[in-house]
Design brief:
This protein is α+β, with helices and mostly antiparallel strands and 1010 residues long. Among the domains are: 482-605, 7 Propeller (Methylamine Dehydrogenase, Chain H); 619-717, Immunoglobulin-like; 858-1010, Heat Shock Protein 90. The chain has a 6-stranded mixed beta sheet, with no helix packed on it. Strand 16 (181-182) and strand 17 (185-186) form a beta hairpin. Helix 7 (864-881) packs parallel to helix 8. Keywords: Coiled coil, Kinase, Membrane, Phosphoprotein, Transferase, Transmembrane, Transmembrane helix. Its EC number is 2.7.13.3. Residues 794-1008 form the Histidine kinase domain.
Length: 1010
Amino acid sequence: MIDLYKNIFLLFLLLPFYTLQSQRPIMELYNTDNGLPQNSVKDIIKDKYGFIWLTTENGMVRYDGVNFLVYKNFPLNSQRFTYFYGSPKKDSIFTNGDYGNTILLHEKKPVIFKNNKNNKIFISHNNTDYLLYCSNYNYGAAPGINYYMNLQHGMYYIKENSLVYKPSQTQKKETLAINAFYNNIIRIFVIDESLFHLDFKNQKVNQIEKGKIVNHYNIPLLTDHKSKIFWSQINNQVFIINENTLYTCHYKNGQLKISKLIQMNGHIKKDNLSSIYYDEFYKKLYLGSSTEGLQIISFPEFMTSKNYASKSPSVFYSTLPYDSSSVITPLGEIYNRNGFVKNYHFKDVISFFMGYDEKGNIIVRKEGDAIMYKKENSYTKTTSIPIKDFFLTDFFFDENKYYALIVKPKKNNTNQYYGILAIYNGKSFSSIYKKIIFNDEPTKFIFLDPNNILVGTIKGLYKVSLKTNKIYNLTIKNDLSIRNIIKSKNGHFWITTIGKGFYLLRDNRLIKMPYDINGNISSSHTILEDANGFFWIPTNNGLYKILEYQLLKYADDQQYKVNYYCYSKDSGFNTNEFNGGGNVSGNKLKNGEFVIPSLNGLVFFNPLKVKSYYPKNIYLERALIDNREVYFKNNLYVDQKSDHAEIFIDVPYYANPDNVTIEAKLNDTSQKKWQFIGKDRKFYISNLGYGNYTFMVRILVNDEGKFIYKKINIIIPPYFYQTLWFKVLAITTLLLVLNFLIRWRISFLKKKNYELEGIINLRTKNLSDTVEKLEATKIQLHNEIEQQKKLIGTISHDITTPIKFIALTAKEVLENKDFSQHRAEKILTSIYKSSDQLYNFTITLKEYADIYSHRSDTTESYSLYKLIEEKIILFNPIADNNNTAIINNVDTYLCTRISKNILAAILHNLLDNSVKYTKNGTITIHSTIENENIILLITDTGIGMDEQKIEYYTRLQDNIESEKLLLQKYGMGLHLVLQLLQMIESKIVFQKNTKQGTSFKLILTNRKND
């Protein structure tokens, strides 16, 4: 009775899982024929990088979803490995080889691990030996062998009738009296640091934490003697096989739960299983056999439904939604995701057309006729549609009218057809309101807007105006055989074709969408849009998915990269070829499922639950150079003598490999543009010259088009004769040789030149001497002439004033004969002083001559005050006669080394001008020092210079070499002053006084006493 209740309980426990059988798992088998080094798969694990690892009796194997990479050349006596232990999260996975040699799996490759103090298989405790227990896949208990388990919080020591717990931090021990073995099989496993003991005697499962029993579970499946437990501590997974069914055991939210995973049929031999691993992300089950290799079982999210009892081919075209979870075919058959449901037995119909009218009646097509199955009679009675010799290709209705596409044979040729867009009065086929004729066979139509209809034919796409009945061809350039016209939720119109892909209609212009990498999208049948904006596109070779906004981006910019996601037979289809010849090529059911017809069944799926699998990472660390595999990190070194090199692009990915989009490029080469990498995931390098290259790889990682990038440096060392130092040495040697030859040639030519020069020099010596003498004479004569000109001009200018004064005085004496004694004395005194001035001036003629004959401005330091006093004495008589006073306010201690002769001449001319034009006034001379320059300010109260003269002399001073001299207009005096100032690198500033007179500001460049 107890066994009866137990079996009934198991039956109710398993009932919820039987529906999973309808998924029909997909199985793949790998053995020594297709990748494995040996057919005994001892253990299976997934590392932190996403690679699947296997241990066999002939090495270790890394599996990335496509390729098996075998490691079996370890320097060990045997390449036989058993189970894994350690921590994938910490990237420290261990396994043991012969004689206790430990292999560490780290950073995606196995190496021999020397320091295995903390990873021992055997330990000794209290004079008792214990064997590590972390998996029950590969061995059972043997007489006299005890086991230990290493958890984070402590250690368990397992004996046949006891379990000893020792915490990590204390010496205290907890001992439980339990029966740890049953038929030499250890009945203990761990999930999330909780230990579970199977108590067969009391038919319960004990939960033990830190050495104490904390809970009990009544799970008959675990305590059934027929159940076989598979447990792996490193995978944290427990599996149960009972009655050809595989279950998983989970500990979640404080509860130990069992769930069915798969019904094991005859293809899976449970007696030979040695290891199990379930990948929850990819929904794949890995079964390791002790004799038959590795079996990978996939649980597809698509369901293919058909009538397995029927002998007829399960080829489907048009279907209609029947209820929220099923569809009906033109034959009257009803299918849901679990298969055939019911049959209304529609007879003699064609599979390419069916439709609902406004009352829910089903319209189907026969040869040259169409009939209607009545909904009110549960589709058992039919009514003929009153139009003969035609067949419908598409049909829809709005609130007021029926619209139909009708194909009729041409009168002259029954193999050719023309089309009619028929619009009926009301919602019946009794009276046609409007006909629009097409020369070609129409296939599909849809409202573009309230006034226009889009019509597709076997030759193109047309827009029909319902107001004018005009037809506009939207495919002028190329013929397109239109298969379907779809309006998306965003109001965009998409057109699928036969053999030429699909298009976006925008502004009456068709924009072709790009193909997938294999070109399968060229035969797209229809587009089904889900709630997330994805388009699902069935083709003759697979089902494709793409976001609408990516296609719209491509329409705006043809450089935008579009990536389609592909689902094929390994996703759960019976065939990759879908059908699109009917008027309805896919259905959306109210329960959210999509239904697509194929050549072998109807494919049911929920688009919001179907997962897109993309790679998470990409690794560049292996290369094959001249058939020798090398590992690298950031830099790959390749010799120039290498014939070719292959860079492996490792990608752990366990779904459809067609969805792995890898592109690579090698900068600074002909391969500098992104190139698609095939399924072998290799990049080939050949005939590269020496240098440093950057190799970049990118891989698509989501539906939105995001890529991740990796790059490495490829370094090809140069030969010694290609190195920089060799080139420098070679060029230096060449230059030295060239220099030697040039120097030898120059020496030879010099010797010849010396001989010729001796002859020429002998013949031309006298001529050269003569020319030099003539040239010196010419210069000397030129200088003397210039000196004489300037001396004459100076003399003429400087003696004019005293002579003129004497003449005027004499004239006054002659004109006024009656003089008083005082007047006579004054006149004679003036004549005397002027004569004396003239006499003194003649004495200074030597100074003028010295100015031009000795132009050096080096002189001994002298007092500027005394020099000015000498000039005042010279001009005082004339100033007195004009009732003018000359005042010397120059610093008595101010000394300079400016050429005394030149400065004397300058002061002479300036005082001469001031005395000449100043009467009844004063002439004042001041001195200051500015930035080591001597500033002499000569200010008079005379009539002053007019603005024209000031402007002239200022301009002349800045352009004395090129400015034209106006000697006749302005005289010689100030012209001479400007020339003399130029000789001593000084300047003069002319300024008209505010009240009366003129100021002469001399800016004298003083010489230091060096």
